[in-house]
Amino acid sequence: LGPTITAGEILVEIMSTSIGAGFLEPQPLIGPFPSGAPAIFIDQVAKLGSPAGIISAVGDDDFGRLNIERLKRDGADVSAIEILSDMPTGSAFVRYREDGNRDFVFNIAKSASGMIRMTDGARELVERAGHVHVMGSAFAIPGIAEILMESVAAVKSRGGSVSFDPNIRKELLTGQADARKRLDQILGVTDLLLPSGEELAIAAGLDDEDAAVASLLASGISEIVLKRGAQGSSCLVSGKRFDCPAFIVEEVDPTGAGDCFGATYVTCRRQGRPHDEALRYANAAGARTVTRRGPMEGVSSFAELDEFIQANRSDI
Ligand code: ATP
Q1: Is the dihedral of CA 173, 283, 301, 264 positive or negative?
Q2: Which end of the chain, N or C, is less packed with Cβ atoms under 10 Å?
Q3: Nearest C-alpha to atom 17 of ligand 1 is from which residue?
Q4: How far is the CA of 108 from the centre of ligand 1 (A)?
Q5: Distance between Cα 280 and ligand 1 center (Å)
Q6: What is the pTM of this model?
């Protein structure tokens, strides 16, 4: 299998240590943790022992080194990550609301992640790739849509496949006038769609779940996987539906669950595993992630997932 690749932000994440505290006054924070949704995704694919690489950029600083070392340690290909001497590595500050939602303060546009280019190293990675994963949060980066679409075209022309996690972050949508057009462009080349929350309704332009799924499957998407947090996940393909309950765990930090879930699902399907097995492994990967503080701290190997599945109950 050619590597699974993506393009997008690499960040450090620094987070609140309490629920409900805002950023308007000093408080204890924890971090830096390696992060950036596309980076978490790729790190999780690599941790499963599957070839994975990311087109990105970091600064020539400790935050960049922290990320590159982690990606390398977990087995990811870092050859398409450009190290920029004149820009800092991007960052995200996260606070947690009482209702379970999160607010982010992102520093992407004026960081190395805002300057991602199709370098020679990136082209070389695309030439070897077998699958492109598109992460919606990355579209805040100027030029990333072109890099992703060029990668998609190259990989599809060789018979490869495409997955898409809309990962809509309201903080990153500001000023993206062509967001709808871009969403439709990506949906038009997507084989596997991985929405959560309201993203299914936004993608289809329909509020009713069944109608939204039917419309997207009719448009050419072959597989839709719905992420439902502590309610687990479902997979919908033409004429069939698989539901998988979540594992019962104590949630410490929800960040990264969707990325690790998606990476595990995509990897299992690329390895030819059936839908229900892929969902179960993906649920386990998402659940393991939320039990650890830090978005990339809960990435799992297959051995760790097998052990977790043996030791933990799901709500059947
Ligand atoms: P994020 O944007 O935070 O990365 P997401 O909204 O894309 O996440 P979620 O639905 O929150 O995705 O999580 C993905 C999967 O992880 C869920 O479908 C579920 O299998 C697992 N998961 C998430 N939260 C929990 C939880 N509290 N308990 C058990 N499993 C969970």
Answers
A1: negative
A2: C
A3: 229
A4: 24
A5: 13
A6: 0.96
Question: Tokens at residue 176, please?
Answer: 């993206």
Separation of alpha carbons 244 and 316, rounded Å: 9
Tokens 């978005």 label which residue? 295
Q: In what order do the strands lie in the sheet with 102-107?
A: 29-35, 11-19, 90-96, 102-107
- pLDDT by 10s per residue, the chain, length 316: 899 999 999 999 999 999 998 899 899 999 999 999 999 999 999 999 999 999 999 999 999 999 999 999 999 999 999 999 999 999 999 999 999 888 999 999 999 999 999 999 999 999 999 999 999 999 989 999 999 999 999 999 999 999 999 987 766 666 667 888 889 999 999 999 999 989 999 999 999 999 999 999 999 999 999 999 999 999 999 999 999 999 999 999 989 999 999 999 999 999 999 999 999 999 999 999 999 999 999 999 999 999 999 999 876 5
- The three state secondary structure string of 230-273 is HHCEEEEECCEEEEECCECCCCCCCCCHHHHHHHHHHHHHHCCC
189/151 Cα distance (integer angstroms): 11
Q: From 227, 248, 260, 264, give the residue whose CB has the most ligand 1 atoms within 8 Å, as the site to mutate.
A: 227
Q: Which residues, 6+ apart, have CB-to-CB distance to 177 below 8 Å?
A: none
Give the per-residue SS3 of 161-172.
EEEEECCCCHHH
Ligand 1: residues whose CB is within 6 Å? 196-197, 227-230, 232-233, 246-247, 249, 251, 254-259, 261, 283, 286-287, 290
